[in-house]
């Protein structure tokens, strides 16, 4: 968004009220709305445990957000809509206004055969249930009420235009992705100065960052295993990010070579780190690749399991399931990765490939090309 603003575009950003101040720092104009989704402060259990638990809140929220945004943009309709993959009202609004829409995907996109290979088996049980049928009926009725006859599945999974904010290396079956629709631009890291910096301790021979992201961080037992694995390991300094639901007091005695934080400027740490234990979210995975940092992937939810397998398949990470992530397994995985020259070689090659994908500037070029009245578009 900063890049688009810097190029002279007026950018408004429809956003839950809690994030309005944060997005305003980029130079955009926040358009706050009320949301019913769990907040970052809520316990992760608020998202439930089943597939329908995970998706129903997004539909319910979309239904109540749409009229708020219709009113907010009355008489000030945009020329183009950019939207997250879960921002259902955005595509409805683009249809209502008759303007192009671009999906900004922070994780993998559907390839040819995705529905048969992944979506249909994943959804079979839910679709056969009364609750699942009610969900689809509600979704279909909402779309129809807004003039959209498309089935909910392609409405969500098959956008007309998509900019993919992950490197192509992280995309499963990348050779089967329609790149006339989906453009991979890789890491759009932007200016992180506002997040602060991190200094590597002078005596640290090696640095390990441990982070399970921002949502599924309530894992005190896992963090204690990390302390057992790396506490007082000669030459190592450990940065342990535990989130807002765990404190240092929950972990017992903290070894002298470990700093426990509720949050860290992750990219700044990774630029100076030698290894990364991650939940394998899309953001963390690509930051690990962009900084050529070997990773131990301990996925927690959603796309993270697939990301972990992709990273391991690339030869730059080890996938350690949560139930197997004890001190011995974590220590063995980290030490094996950092001592392997082939891992370093593969990370360096991927880092070069990512740099060539264009990042923020190419994403902005592609967005500008979709604006009505623009000239010859750049290569997708």
Automatic annotation (TrEMBL):
Kindly give the Pfam families that the UniProt entry links to this protein.
EryCIII-like_C
Q: Which organism is it from?
A: Streptomyces angustmyceticus
Is Transferase among this UniProt entry's keywords?
A: yes
Segments of this protein annotated with the region Disordered: 357-380
UniProtKB keywords: Transferase
GO MF annotations in UniProt: hexosyltransferase activity; UDP-glycosyltransferase activity
> What name goes with this protein?
Macrolide-inactivating glycosyltransferase
One of its GO biological process terms is:
antibiotic biosynthetic process
Gene3D superfamilies, alphabetized: Glycogen Phosphorylase B
């Amino acid at each position: 968004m900063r890049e688009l603003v810097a190029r002279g575009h007026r950018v408004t950003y429809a956003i839950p009220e809690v994030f309005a101040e944060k997005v305003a720092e980029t130079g955009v104009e926040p358009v706050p709305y009320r949301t019913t989704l769990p907040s970052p402060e809520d316990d992760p259990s608020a998202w439930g445990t089943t597939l329908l638990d995970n998706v129903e809140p997004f539909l319910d929220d979309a239904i109540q957000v749409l009229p708020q945004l219709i009113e907010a943009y009355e008489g000030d309709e945009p020329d183009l809509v950019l939207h997250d993959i879960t921002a259902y009202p955005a595509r409805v609004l683009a249809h209502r206004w008759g303007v192009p829409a671009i999906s900004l995907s922070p994780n993998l996109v559907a390839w040819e055969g995705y529905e048969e290979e992944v979506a249909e088996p994943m959804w079979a049980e839910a679709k056969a249930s009364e609750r699942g049928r009610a969900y689809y009926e509600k979704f279909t009725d909402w779309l129809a009420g807004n003039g959209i006859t498309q089935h909910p599945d392609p409405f969500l999974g098959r956008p007309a235009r998509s900019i993919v904010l992950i490197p192509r290396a992280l995309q499963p079956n990348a050779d089967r992705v329609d790149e006339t629709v989906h453009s991979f631009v890789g890491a759009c890291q932007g200016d992180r100065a506002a997040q602060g910096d991190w200094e590597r301790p002078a005596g640290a021979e090696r640095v390990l960052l441990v982070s399970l992201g921002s949502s599924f961080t309530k894992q005190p037992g896992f963090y204690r295993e990390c302390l057992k694995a790396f506490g007082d390991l000669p030459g190592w300094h450990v940065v342990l990010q535990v989130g807002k639901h765990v404190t240092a007091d929950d972990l017992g005695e903290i070894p002298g070579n470990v700093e426990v934080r509720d949050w860290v400027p992750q990219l700044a740490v990774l630029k100076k780190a030698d290894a990364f234990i991650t939940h394998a979210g899309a953001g963390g995975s690509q930051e690990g690749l962009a900084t050529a940092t070997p990773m131990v992937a301990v996925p927690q939810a959603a796309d993270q399991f697939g990301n972990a397998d992709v990273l391991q398949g690339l030869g730059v990470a080890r996938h350690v399931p949560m139930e197997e992530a004890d001190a011995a397994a974590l220590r063995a995985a980290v030490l094996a990765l950092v001592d392997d020259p082939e891992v370093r070689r593969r990370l360096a090659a991927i880092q070069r490939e990512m740099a060539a994908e264009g990042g923020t500037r190419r994403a902005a070029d592609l967005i500008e090309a979709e604006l009505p009245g623009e000239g010859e578009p750049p290569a997708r």
